[in-house]
Amino acid sequence: MGITKGLPEGFNPQSYDVIVVGAGFAGAVCARRLAEACGDKVAIIERRDHIAGNAYDCLDDAGVLIHKYGPHIYHTQSERVHEYLSRFTEWTDYNHKVLANIHGTLMPVPFNHQSLKLAFGDEKGEHLYQKLVAAFGEDKKVPIMELREKNDPELAEVADYVYENVFLHYTMKQWGKTPDQIDPSVMGRVPVFVGDDDRYFPKAPHQGMPAVSYTDLFEHMLDHDLISVFLDVDARDLLSLGDGHVNVCGQPYGGEVIYTGALDELFGFDLGALPYRTVDMVFETLDEDQFQPVGTVNYTVSENFTRITEFKNMTGQVVPGKTTILREYSRTYLPGVGETPYYVINEPQNIELYKRYKARVEDILNFHVVGRLAEYRYYDMDGVTASALELSDDLISNH
Known about the structure:
Belongs to the UDP-galactopyranose/dTDP-fucopyranose mutase family. One of its GO terms (molecular function) is flavin adenine dinucleotide binding. Its cofactor is FAD. By secondary structure, the protein is α/β, with parallel strands linked by helices. The chain folds into three domains: 2-51 and 222-274 and 344-397, Rossmann fold; 98-194, no CATH class; 276-332, no CATH class. The chain is built from twelve helices and 22 strands. The chain has a seven-stranded mixed beta sheet with strand order 8-7-18-19-20-17-21. Strands 1-12-3-2-16-22 form a six-stranded parallel beta sheet, with helices on one face.
């Protein structure tokens, strides 16, 4: 039915079978499935001025296709997710590779055979690699804790190098922590890859980029006669919850409400704000064809930004003489002032606070939460798509 800005005069929520809050992956997948499978008339309410959520991409002033909310690299091991999303786009054969800038040398991460030789020199690096092969076999991802458990000084040296140069300082920047605040169990899971595969997602059989763009994928997904999208509309102005029911525009609503936003925002942070990390995105267009050899370079021991992304290296777009890069500066999220919450801080007290908010909506039978914000968890794109497919399965079966 189309995408419009604002609500039309005389908007009547009761004329819709389903109201979806949010036009990102969670909301769009649920909307399309309920429209198709059940013949439901769906209204999507989106606070931003565009569809596609954080996956939104667009051309910048130089004509370079950029990801406005940071790099989104599609990868999945789920056949169902891939089959579903492939209805709305074709994919490129892009395989994501990441290099770490360690004291000026670019090394593949996860740390692998080539990284060892770059870090320790060809001869010693090869010697250490053969030790890893003897201990663990080839094409294995080995946590550095397992290297330490071998009680071998040389393997411990590899573990120490990776911890210090790949993980520690990068994690301090990403999460705003000091070394003593970093969970040792998380440190122990930092991997070394015993092999030569330098792809960042070596186990994902499906990976790439949308052949046109992510926004184009969403335009196709939302192109259905029973789906209407209303941009620049804040659901908090329409929704209120209480006494086991949901009101829309001041009246009890009898259809299904699928909510993909932040629950603490919906309740005005009255129990306290859920903590996140956010990212200041600084884009720069350069007068050159290519700035760096891969899509993403992590700055693991230097600089106050975490990484630089060069979009043309991921999309394959050809824009002669111009390229756009993105530097990311991680910091504490400030709630209620229009910032974008990116990364859940997965600590017990925060999960407990989320559960208190979630308990408030569990007795509202036609109110459903799904997605990264609504579930207060980190999702890759395929994970949030899978969650939306599961929710829509339940709604379709109970229709």
